[in-house]
Design a protein that fits this description.
- It holds the Pfam family TauE.
- Belongs to the 4-toluene sulfonate uptake permease (TSUP) (TC 2.A.102) family.
- By secondary structure, this protein is mainly alpha-helical.
- The chain has one domain.
- The strands form two sheets. Strands 1-2 form a two-stranded antiparallel sheet. A two-stranded antiparallel sheet has the order 3-4.
- Helix 1 runs antiparallel to helix 2, helix 4 packs parallel to helix 8 and helix 5 packs antiparallel against helix 10.
- The longest helix is centred in the middle third of the chain and has 32 residues.
Amino acid sequence: MTIYLPIAELPVAIFTIFAMGLAVGFISGMFGVGGGFLMTPLLIFTGVPPAVAVASVSPYMAASSFSGALSYLRKGMVDLTLSGVLLSGGLVGTTAGVALFAFLRRIGQVDLAIALSYTALLGAIGAMMLTESVRAIARTRRGGQPQVRRPGTHSWFMRLPLKMRFRRSRIYVSAIPVVVLGFVIGLLGAVLGVGGGFILVPALIYMLRVPTQTSVGTSLVLTLVTMTAATVLHAQANGTVDAVLALVLMIGGTVGAQFGARAGQTMRPEYLRLLLGLLVLSVAIRVAADLVRPPADAFIVAPVEGPP
């Protein structure tokens, strides 16, 4: 069964898109990540224009994080003060990201910028996760204990001014790195269509010493708000949000996440990180391969977007 995507301007097999949402939802539920960093490249691989893929994944990310954020709020595992400070930078970053996205689209370089950014970001994160997980597995097999940095040790940026006390997270740190972190996550979300949870959660845990469950809950709230804002801004400024595509992805992702969460509970954490690292690295390699592969058509005539 084929449906026509009005914004992407191409027909697609509805069951293929649904299966993609199902698979990424399964991975999201299994590994505890948003899945936008996988969904956007997959859509591009199937022929969806990168600009439409990035913008249409934003509502998918917002919807997928809503139920999780609500659950963590009910359990009291969200630091609302920390969320507010992160959002003060995140919303500014989202606005700046949409403006940057519109500029790259006007000059005709948005496809190249997205591909290069995904290659660098996913390649670095995948390599780090793979290295860390292999070391953790080797350490576990030798009978060693995981290496944990003492909570009292802080990096230089923790000694910056404007310190705040975040009672739920039990930390007393400068608000400056928190705002900057929120800005970076908002910027990445708007430009690349990623929720940023796979960056924000480790940053909160290892940089700011926030408890793991509180980090996940707080990250979901930030993803929900920034991705909702990105959806509205992309629709208004760029007109690249395909509602039909987003709806099919939402349905598939919601179903897949339920099964993925059950599967993830049966595996050891270090093996989960190993599989996720391999997955992220393989996507980065595929995006990089598309960058260097010779195009099917050496010369393509296309209209220039923007005012004449």
